[in-house]
């Protein structure tokens, strides 16, 4: 019985022990928080002593009285006093929301809504904890407890940036111990959120880290967790990265929260500077000795900060004994100067200054071969090609370059020219039988570098049989007649591939005219040959396409003229006088889909319609025929204009191939003298009454063919005697250099002028066409009706 009870007793004892440990830990945290709070209050009391000339006791009483009067706790008032005195980055972060910023979680915040009053306390308390922390691990714990947990964050990591671009975990809180051990070091080049913030030198926010696909400490596949990585640096130099984790998807944060996080990162930078985890850099004296020991030119650069503490330039602190400026200037011309003063051309985008700034900020070294370096001497740019190496040592940047000599530079250019031009040079000594090939010629002819060069006399063995005669003529001209020559032939490579090659050669003769050697070059012209073949085929196809296009344009023009001839006499129906004008495009390829129709229906109403099919050519012309005839047939049903356009839209959408068009459909009742009309994306008609021209109020209506289900409004207009109504297509007003609104206003002016200066309706239309300022050579239709 006693044995059976023992495990329960042990379990009870272990539970009590765990509870005791948790209680002690909580008491330690509370003690630390109280200590940080006391430190903040003591700092505020010190400010009151200095500003108000009070004793410490009086300052304590004054602080308590002010807090009670302001309905604040002493800790909150202490934070406000420190903010007012410091006016630093933390003060800015603890200020009010920007008026245009959103609130927490993305909800809008009113202009008069203040920030959470505990923000200042949290940030200043975190600052006190960081300043009193013994190492970076303690800093991480203080950050999470005082500043980040109230924001909903559950974990934080502080990364120290190495000189090679690596990241070392300097401290963490909220992550499992095993995670911290596995992520204690991140090699250079591994993509992580902290690495991205380091390289881009900006804060990187991830609403859901799983969507970014970047691994990081404490993150598991499938976790929908938010992350932010913020560079921690001072004076333009990034010492590390502050990474914060949320247990849920993170919504966009307001600028206020972003400023708080950036202010905390700045505190972390001071901690990394005070408690360096990475090996300390070389002392200045040793760095100078190292530079002086190098034979290549060396610049030791120090950051030059502006009055706000931001990086503005780099001071050339030292030049080594072997320094030779690539522009020919002595050491004294650049020593002690600012980098952009000595080398102003380095300020270009992607130039030398940007590389130096990136190395100084991230610690990631930069190396480049054949980089152009430019100096401005007496306003004349001088450029040299050099191999460049830039590295950071503490707060100092070391830049080394090696200018390529002219011989190496020319040889390198020649190699690149041969590679780009697919050219290989050769020289064959006919006296000693020695043959010299350039390195690129072996790969050009499909031979390994260890193969023996092919003599000119053996070229026929490697030539396509159809080109053998051309090679024989080439060799006879070169070797027997001693004349420079060239030939193009098909070379049969050992790998079975046939290439089109051009060989150019010239003889080298002695003083007596005897042939000593031959030198020249082979060039692979296969791409050029096949390009010429393709161009010939393309020319034939283009000529055929042009013939087909011309035939289609002629057919479209004939179809358009057959349905709507350019000239049309006046039409009279009941009390209406109708005049129409149609002006086709001058170019056959611009034949469009403009159309009009005027017909008396069986109901004794007059159908007036005008439209414009999108596009040009045979498709637009045939689309115009379909819509015009369909509308005429539908109008015999007696339906109103809105219903007719609804049906016509179904025709355009379902019974044609991708035809869209604008249109106006109007029905005039001669008994009531009422004009009912509807529009499908077309310009509204113009009414001229009492010599005043104005547009009819616009009604809604989507262009035909855009959607299968479209709604069209119907308007009504009562015509009076001598009223003139104009309907037109965009070819009458459209200009390349003016907006449609401007052109429409000009049309109203011309219409009024035509009314005042001309007589008949046909003359008024002629006046419109004469004084319209369209310049697009598009089809144009105009219908004018006048009530007598």
UniProtKB/TrEMBL annotation:
This is Antitermination regulator. Keywords: Hydrolase, Transcription, Transcription regulation. One of its GO terms (molecular function) is phosphatase activity. The lineage of its organism: Bacteria, Bacillati, Actinomycetota, Actinomycetes, Streptosporangiales. The keyword Aminoacyl-tRNA synthetase does not apply. Residues 485-537 form the PAC domain. SMART domains: ANTAR, PP2C_SIG. Residues 21-82 form the ANTAR domain. It holds the Pfam family ANTAR. It comes from the Bacteria.
